[in-house]
Design brief:
Oligomer: single chain
Largest sheet: 4 strands, parallel
Strand order of the largest sheet: 1-2-3-4
Number of helices: 3
Radius of gyration: 18 Å
Structural class: alpha/beta
Shape: globular
Length: about 120
């Protein structure tokens, strides 16, 4: 199975309760069971305002997925959640976002003629 092909889709809803984390981790393991790796898509649009409980949940889901030979991908992640994850050093693949990379060859950035060289 291609590592980019989703195996399962989990719709996460908030608020995140600590007693629910184990159940979500089990759902990730189940979604990846029997596959030779894969991706579980986590729809995070229903988590509500981002906070450390959501960060903890997503970190645990990613760890669970990696231990099972897969990964998680976030769907409907708002800018505030993505920023918070980045702030704590966690990077997730997200649906609908283009990866940052160098511009294609032949494309040059515009420079104003009055700008000092720097």
């Amino acid at each position: 199975m291609d590592a980019k092909t989703p195996v399962a889709v989990l719709v996460l809803t908030g608020p995140v309760r600590p007693d629910a984390v184990a159940g979500w981790c089990a759902a990730v393991r189940e979604g990846l069971a029997g596959g030779a790796g894969g991706v579980v898509v986590c729809d995070v649009g229903g988590l509500g305002p981002p906070g450390l409980a959501a960060v903890d949940l997503l970190a645990r889901l990613e760890l669970t997925a990696r231990r099972a030979g897969g990964r998680i991908r976030l769907r409907d992640a708002g800018p505030a959640l993505v920023a918070l994850l980045g702030l704590v050093g966690l990077r997730f693949q997200t649906e609908g976002q283009v990866e940052e990379r160098e511009p294609p060859l032949g494309v040059e950035e515009a420079v104003e003629t009055g700008d000092p060289a720097g």
